[in-house]
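Researcher: Re-running this chain for the archive, since the previous output was lost when a drive failed. Same request as before.
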Amino acid sequence: MNEYLTAVLNVAFNYNISYEIFNYLNDETPSAALPEERRIAINTNWFKPNQLPFVVGGSRSPTPLSVIS
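Model: Regenerated structure tokens:
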């Protein structure tokens, strides 16, 4: 996990947002935000791993982290 993703996950943790990291999903399976559960599902096999901090942080997520917090 890179330092940017770690930083974004720390922010989520500070706002009582939980996350699950999946390393066995298909590389085209997107990560997802579940705002009603205050949870993020993260696919670490994403085909562009450098995008993960942005996906989790909200710029490409169906439900941005900023909406959840």
